[in-house]
User: What shape does this take?
Amino acid sequence: MALTPSSMMPLGTPAPGFSLPDVVSDKMISLADARGAKGTVVMFICAHCPYVIHIQQEIVRVVKDYQDQGVDFVAISSNDVEKYPNDAPEKLKEQAKQVGFTFPYLYDESQDVAKAYQAECTPDFFLFDENNLCVYRGRMDEATPGNGKPVNGKDLRAALDALIAGRQIFEEQFPSMGCNIKWK
Assistant: This one.
């Protein structure tokens, strides 16, 4: 694993479209299917990354707290499963069931979606408003394995609270840090 920061897609960028298989339901899910009335969180995660494992229970709590407020969530895994078989679709499905994910968990075999989003690491979070424009990108909070910071979703929660309330989202946003996406 190589510690990698997110690339921080420019704010105002339209959400790139996608249509990918959901590892849990086996249905094809598009961006239109995943959109929330007030906003959409697209997160790049995977099953084996210690940075994702460290925060995955907080991801579940954030989704629970905001899903009924008009925000929908979708996770995407784009890792090369030939070199990293622990991120194969069946392993992602196990992770989703074990952790309690209640959102689509998509597999980006071609890695085209990760490239379109300029995703660099897992986890990597992108928040799009009701017009599908990027209003937040980066970390969920400052917690990483071993740094002693609380796993509380502070940064993502603040962005979601502002979006729902119709307030300006803070301009200072910090990149996520995690394992690099395992490119083919």
